[in-house]
Structures are given as C-alpha cells and as structure tokens.
Recover the amino acids of this structure.
C-alpha cells in the first residue's frame, strides 16, 4: 500500500477494539454503541490528521504569565456523505471543533440487473478554495461514490488538500480512489480484501447506514 494510505489499526490501540465492536453482529444490536464507535474512530482520525497540518506559534496569557503555544493555522472543512457518514463526521467535528462543514448526498441507484450508478443530488458546502478538506464515509467499497464526491469538490471548490476518512476500506476501493484521485490521502480504521458483486465489503460489517440509523426501504 502506498504512503497515501494509513491503516490506523496497524498499531495495537483502542481503535482496534472499536473496529472489532462495529463488526460484531451481537454488539451491532446496540445502535448507540455502533454510532459512538464510528464517532470515536473519527476522533482518532482527526487527531492523526492534525499531525500533518500546519501550526502557528502564539503567545497565550495565563493568570501567571505568558505561555508559548501552538495553534492550528487554518480550520479544515469537514464534509460527509449522507447518511452513513454522519457519526464519523461528528467524531471529526468533536476534535476539529472550529471546522466548517459540508454535506453531500451520494447514493447507489440500483438497476434491475444488479448494477448501480452513483447519484449526487444534494450538496451544501462552504467555500473550499485553497482549504484542507476532509471527506468521511464509513465504508470504502467500490470507491465510486467517494470518487464522484471528491471530483465534484475538487472541480467546484479547488481545495488545497483532500483527506478521506473511512472506518473500513477494501483494497480494490482504495486502489480505485488512488487511481482516480492520486493526490488524496486515505485514513482507514481497517482494510479488508474482499468485495461482493453487490458492492459489500467482506468480512466488513454489513450496511453501515442501516446499522447506525435503521433499515431503509428502496424508493
Ligand atoms: N456500504 C456499506 O454500508 N457496507 C459495505 O460493505 C459497503 C458499502
């Protein structure tokens, strides 16, 4: 895997525990825990991304004197793909608490033959010109919706850098994103090898949106 991909569960940390919980079909019955674990993964990803961003020195007046401190130079824009991305988004926002926020609806429009195309039909974003943009989506499966979203953000908004945060990615999805959008950096909670014909990651965890918010019906 290239240096543009970070697998956050390569090290033995609490994050691996949360990944095992979101995968576990027994623990998944507790929707609040599922959402909170995704949020915690977003928090860890935010902390790791912050290590790559520019900081400025600043003096802070304490009650006892002056402290030399460091502060994030510019606030990022956190953008998520509705609806499944919301808990990860909240986790990123818990840490980047002064960030601006964008929301995009990208969904799989299924055809009768089982194939699908990505439909992008709602976008609400702040100014992106020259800014660091972080896009979150819990499952990087085929990569089709992420690539469509990133292309839109890049062409319409011209961000300076794009980070992608996912809870679980599969190898083919990562390769597709990096082939289509070689400048972006992908932060993954875990990486799986298999993808079903219907675009589900194996072993993965199932449908992240349904697990977080309840089963949907196809309209
Ligand atoms: N979206 C999901 O929710 N799960 C997958 O396995 C793939 C895409």
């Amino acid at each position: 895997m290239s240096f543009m991909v970070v697998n956050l569960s390569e090290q033995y940390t609490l994050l691996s525990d949360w990944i095992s919980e979101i995968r576990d079909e027994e623990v998944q019955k507790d929707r609040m825990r599922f959402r909170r674990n995704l949020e915690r993964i977003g928090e860890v990803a935010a902390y790791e991304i912050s290590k790559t961003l520019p900081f400025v020195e600043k003096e802070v007046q304490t009650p006892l004197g002056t402290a030399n401190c460091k502060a994030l130079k510019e606030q990022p824009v956190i953008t998520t793909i509705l609806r499944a991305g919301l808990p990860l988004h909240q986790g990123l926002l818990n840490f980047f608490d002064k960030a601006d926020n964008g929301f995009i609806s990208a969904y799989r429009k299924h055809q009768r033959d089982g194939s699908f195309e990505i439909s992008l039909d709602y976008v609400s974003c702040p100014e992106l010109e020259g800014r660091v943009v972080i896009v979150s989506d819990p499952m990087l499966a085929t990569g089709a919706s992420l690539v469509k979203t990133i292309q839109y953000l890049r062409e319409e908004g011209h961000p300076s850098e794009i980070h992608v945060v996912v809870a679980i990615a599969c190898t083919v999805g990562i390769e597709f994103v990096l082939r289509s959008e070689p400048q972006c950096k992908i932060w993954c909670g875990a990486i799986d090898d298999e993808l079903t014909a219907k675009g589900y990651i194996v072993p993965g965890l199932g449908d992240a949106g349904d697990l977080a918010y309840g089963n949907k019906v196809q309209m």
Observations:
- Residues 84, 139, 141, 199-201, 204, 207-209 surround uracil (CB under 6 Å).
